[in-house]
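Long-time lurker, first post. I've been practising inverse folding by hand and with some scripts of my own, and I keep getting stuck on stretches where the structure tokens seem ambiguous. Below is the full token string for one chain I'm working on. Before anyone asks, I'm not after the true native sequence, just a reasonable design that respects the backbone. If someone could post their per-position residues I'd love to compare against what I wrote down in my notebook.
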């Protein structure tokens, strides 16, 4: 989570004013879920003590949801 801008994802251990836009996370997570080469997803450095109005934990949950949606859409072997 530290790779994203503090303005979008404030509840991290090492906040940064520059980085990826927070809005990119759901799409990235979805694409990872769709890719059969991806076997797991780890979301780290979310710190609720620094979060503002649960903005970061909601952002994290949305990304995990999108990863699972992508995972469920994978082609299954016959």
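-- Answer (accepted) --
I ran through it position by position. Result:
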């Amino acid at each position: 989570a530290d790779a994203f801008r503090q303005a979008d994802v404030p509840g991290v251990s090492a906040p940064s004013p520059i980085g990826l836009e927070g809005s990119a996370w759901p799409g990235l997570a979805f694409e990872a879920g769709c890719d059969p080469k991806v076997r797991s997803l780890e979301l780290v450095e979310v710190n609720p003590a620094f979060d503002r109005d649960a903005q970061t934990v909601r952002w994290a949950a949305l990304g995990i949801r999108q990863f699972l949606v992508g995972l469920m859409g994978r082609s299954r072997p016959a």
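A couple of notes from the structure itself: The radius of gyration is 14 Å. The chain has a mean pLDDT of 92. Happy to go over any region you disagree with.
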